[in-house]
Hints:
alpha/beta, Rossmann fold, seven-stranded mixed β-sheet, 5 helices, 25% helix, globular
Amino acid sequence: MNLKKLRTWTKVFESDLSHIAYELKEMISTPAMIVLDGDLGAGKTTFSKIFIDDCETISPSYSILSETPSTLHGDFYRIKSREEIYYLELPMYLEDKKYFLIEWGKEHYAAIWREIPEDFESYLLKISINKKSLDGQNLSRNFALFKILEQ
Length: 151
């Protein structure tokens, strides 16, 4: 996967996420597929909920796909094979969508890319957790946005 770094945000707290989501939407071309990459508990689902501005739609790892009028959200944590991605029928869900956010999709990127419409741009958002603060409560994260270049 060839990447071009577009932007980084450091020491991001949960209260900063709406600002990050706004900036990200201003930076990227739509329609866009955004693969969210990070360890378990890094904040992929939390960021997705804020990005979509719909906390009711997304449940962590319960459904593979959930949608709003402008966004399709995929949680591919339980996806084990490329064939499973094919059977999701992604093109049907992506009609008229501006964004396709995918958690746990980096491993299956090539299979996903073959299934999305040609006009979609492709991005990777890496999320990492900073070391715990002295009180152990207020964790910050680092975000890095990359454009995924031609394969």
